[in-house]
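Shipment paperwork, digital attachment
Item: protein structure file
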Amino acid sequence: MSERRWGRGEATVRGDAAPIYYLSLGDSLAVGVQPIGPENRQFRTDEGYADQLATIARRRLPNLRTVKLGYPGESTTTMIEGGLTEYPHGSQLDEAVAFLRAHRGSVAFVTVDIGLNDLESYVLEAIPAGLASIGRNLPGILATLQDAAGPGTPIAGMTIYDPFLPHWLDGPLGRELARISVSEAVVPFNACFREIYREAGLVLADVEGAFATIDFETQVELAGVGRVPINVARACEWTWGGEPPPLGPDVHANVRGYRVIAEAFERALVATSEPGDRGLLLAPSGV
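Attachment content:
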């Protein structure tokens, strides 16, 4: 089976015994939050997408070390200014810049998920202000990371899934809510992310596509329920959004969902390789 390249730059030279790093930045998804996580660790787990992505990468880079700087509840504003927790260098962005500068040439890749917490609340009225906040802050965050990382260090973001799709199972009003959640929230947010990352020349992990988030047409079987749209089934199977109390409803992915996100990041990072470069070589997922 053919190998796949992933990443560029000195840090991804195969066979180098020196430690190299994967830097994970963002919010609660970046630190694997799930309702089953320990409360004294803000429900963080070691089964998030960053953990699973690192496991995938270590197939070819056994000396890869993961550095997770994300923080639950982080928005683009607090990522720049701080305020939720204390980092030695200030904010999460300050800490990331310090790390990237101190380890330039030794960072294999960087992942970022940030922006959803720019919503003050999960209501439609909050969306314009949330999008405006992302538009003000995210381009500068990405430019700062690019400058600190240096040329050739892949930085990837992600689109979002919709954890409110399980409301489809609640009857006619729930179905209306599910459709509105996708069309009025997820679609504009992901359009915003795509434009900002495109302008920055960076790649996005297609989490929206992996979760079939906008596909209400394809019907599949959902255990214990029957036939439902594929986006509803995947949200039920891959997030805590359809779980009853006390674990749900919860917006975070479960272990399986985090695996899907990790694989979406893998595909995006593979796409950053150039023919003939010295990239991180990976076997295809599932091998």
